[in-house]
User: Fold AAA family ATPase from Streptomyces blastmyceticus.
Amino acid sequence: MTVPGIETEALRPHAEDAFAGELKALAAADDRPRPERWRLSPWAVATYLLGGTLPDGTVITPKYVGPRRTVEVAVATLATDRALLLLGVPGTAKTWVSEHLAAAVSGDSTLLVQGTAGTPEEAMRYGWNYARLLAEGPSRAALVPSPVMRAMAAGTTVRVEELTRIPADVQDTLITALSEKTLPIPELGEEVQAVRGFNLIATANDRDRGVNELSSALRRRFNTVVLPLPATAEAEVDIVARRVDQIGRSLGLPAVPDGAAEIRRVVTVFRELRDGVTADGRTKLKSPSGTLSTAEAISVVTGGLALAAHFGDGVLRAGDMAAGIQGAVIRDPAADRLVWQEYLEAVVRERDGWKDFYRACREAAA
Ligand SMILES: Nc1ncnc2c1ncn2[C@@H]1O[C@H](COP(=O)(O)OP(=O)(O)O)[C@@H](O)[C@H]1O
Ligand SMILES: [Mg+2]
Assistant:
């Protein structure tokens, strides 16, 4: 068996490398029909994401914890001629799911366009190697294909991160690729036609909506799948605990036992502040400006573990978490500090069993 996350020496291995063993076992056990150029059947892709046990006993770890139907719709979309848009607030695993989908479907999650306000058209279509272009004129050899073009030619999955941050006119260069399944190269009088197996996964943040709203022409090419925040505190604690364990092992952090209570506390604090009300529904709270996502909870706990492992007594304690939690909550120094102080005095201070945390937060703030 392979240890997730440490099959290679890479600091942050690609999903297809980190989980190569699981993908291989799934492919071997998978006797369902596969769409052309897919490494696995849609059923096996969903199992890879959601986890399960194969007939030979191989355990597939869950990558995504969330509604099964959401994953099934996402995978089924990729088997059609529509592209997939993963939508959600920050930290809902959009990037994570898109990487694992590409790894499971195409065995390659590296064809990636990072969307920013400065993403150029070349990142969606193609560019030129200017030395060759000047020396030889336009030719196939002088052309530098974009990840989109490479995926079209190879019949694989390409990912576009943060699609709505990309300027609208650059976004629109995707329309021809997604509707006509071709990328014209007017300079050469040629085109690159997508072969079967090509598809595109884009991610976008709910909060960015309106920044560069997708044009309706482009939106029609996508099936949108919304990734929700974890429905319950239990589900969120489970996600955080799993990921922290994987990350801790890939960073080679010494094992810190009994982190469960502190993980539950971060998740409780983040959920209460996010929801604007305490878990028992009794006290209304102000929400800070940050997102306090599951992803942030994961990094706060990881930071706490590093403190506990290297500078503490090997047990994760409130003192290892306080600074990280405050750092995540207080993004805007003025407004968020007030929100945090109110929460500290009205909720943390009064809560049974939270005295250590209250004291640690007061110390960290001083
Ligand atoms: N429902 C979930 N299941 C599994 N992991 C999750 C879930 N929600 C968040 N995560 C974790 O949060 C981290 C960051 O998610 P990311 O994909 O970067 O978020 P986004 O792209 O939506 O902002 C990942 O490490 C992922 O494992
Ligand atoms: Mg992301």
